[in-house]
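User: My instructor asked us to take a sequence, write out its structure as tokens, and then describe one feature of it. I'm not sure where to start. Here is the sequence I was given:
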Amino acid sequence: MTFEEWEANVPAAIKDDTLWRVEAYRLGLFVSDLAWEDAGKLLKDRRTWSVADQLYRAAGNVSSNVGEVYSRCTGKDRARFYEYALGSTREARDWYYKARHVLDPAVVSHRVELSTRIIRLTLTMVSNERTSNRRIGEDA
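Assistant: Let's start with the prediction itself. The structure tokens for your sequence are:
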């Protein structure tokens, strides 16, 4: 499934939220849906049951932590949740690499590249928030 195909099926209630403008959120939500399918394949091999569980939990945490940022007031708080998203993305990428023995090589490559893209985005977001003393609602 491509990002565009997936995006076409995302409910308007999610797309209409301000959070939808954050690329790391959109990609994180996409990765979590991909991980759902991938975990299903991993569950067919008893040796990768724990990989499936860890992969799905890590991938699911990416967009959740980016979403949590929107309820935080200070740059320090926001940076902390972006760091959580960063950690979850790196963890998901690691689990995808470990899943390479079961998943198709093209699938693993796509997921690793997508995770790396999210990592780059969240690194920038963390840096921006760490240097910001701005509170939500203040003029920039």
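For the description part of your assignment, you could build on this observation: The chain has one domain: 13-130. Try explaining in your own words what that tells you about the chain.
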